[in-house]
Amino acid sequence: MTTARPVALVTGASSGIGKEAALGLVKAGFDVVGTSRDTSRVTPLDGVTFLDLDVASDDSATAVVKQVIEKFGRIDVLVNNAGVGSIGAAEESSVAQAQAVFDINVFGVLRMVREVLPHMRAQERGRIINLSSVQGFIPAPYMAVYGASKHAIEGYTQSLDHEVREYGIRALVVEPAYTRTGFEANSTQPDLPLEVYAQQRQTFGRMMTAAVEDGDDPAVVAKVIVAAATNPKPKLRYTAGTLAGRASVLRRFAPSGIFDSQIRKMNQLAG
Fold first, then answer.
1. How confident is the model at residue 186, as a pLDDT?
2. CATH superfamily assigned to domain 7-266
3. Could you report how far apart the first and last alpha carbons of the chain are, in Å?
4. Phi, psi (rounded to 5 degrees) for 194
5. Residue 182 has what pLDDT?
6. Which residues touch 239 (CB under 8 Å, ≥6 apart)?
7. How many Å separate Cα 114 from the centre of its chain?
8. Which residue from 1, 21, 136, 230 has the least number of CB within 10 angstroms?
9. What SS3 state is found at 51?
10. By C-alpha distance, which of 32, 1, 61 is closest to 229?
11. 193-251 pLDDT, tens per residue?
């Protein structure tokens, strides 16, 4: 079967940003396939076909893309939204824990990109939209592993975009700030907690809870994802929300000393 409508594949679409992005793409005229690790627990969404996907599995990524191609005959947009948070000082996370975060946030993206690119190249068009974060371009104290994973996505996407443009494909990043999702509750906690960091980690946790509660609605980010998917002349980077926009301006134009002090102030760090 081949549909005349564009097809979007959205990972991590059962809730939060992914859910709103899937619904937004349906409204924009896409046939949408959403993924979740366990679709038996997913509330159905009008216009969205759900498939089971574990982005940490090569076989699962291969199987999902094959199913989409068999059902629709095409993939025009891939939204790599599935991810996991990680909270704690850098010294408090084991290498194994960091590898587990990277296996989802970074290698999960690589797996999906590798699977969809042959189809996009064959049809000579496509958009790959990778969810980054403001912590992909600014420091992330007490989220160093998570921040490193998003910095990796920024670098990977920039390079990928240059490689695939000649085939009619663009690779883009969307950079939200704090968003009202289950991010904090679903974030991994340090597996090697140290007393020396305990007080500051707790301070950071309270700050994070308040920031998420006051953060952007996921629909704000979803609107930006739809724009990235549909703009005739897309940008490499799309910040999502007012705070993300301010952080981007600060990073680009503030003197290094001022930028450094603002990061420490924002994260309630002494000195």
1. 80
2. NAD(P)-binding Rossmann-like Domain (3.40.50.720)
3. 62
4. -120, 135
5. 82
6. 134, 175, 176, 224, 245, 247, 248
7. 17
8. 1
9. strand
10. 32
11. 999 999 999 999 999 889 889 999 999 999 999 999 999 999 999 999 999 999 999 99
Tokens 């950071």 identify what position? 204
Domain boundaries, the chain: 7-266
**Side chain identity at 212, as an amino acid letter?**
V
C-alpha pair distances (Å), 85 with each of 104, 146, 236, 254: 10, 6, 24, 28
Which one-letter amino acid corresponds to residue 243? L
Q: Which two tokens stand for residue 161?
A: 């975009």
Cβ atoms of 143 and 271 closer than 8 Å: no
Question: Residues 215-227: pLDDT tens digits?
Answer: 999 999 999 999 9
* Per-residue pLDDT at 1 exceeds 90: no
* Residue 187: pLDDT over 80: yes
Looking at residue 106, the DSSP 8-state letter turns out to be T
- Tell me which residues are annotated as active site: 14, 132, 146, 150
C-alpha span between 265 and 215 (Å, rounded):
18
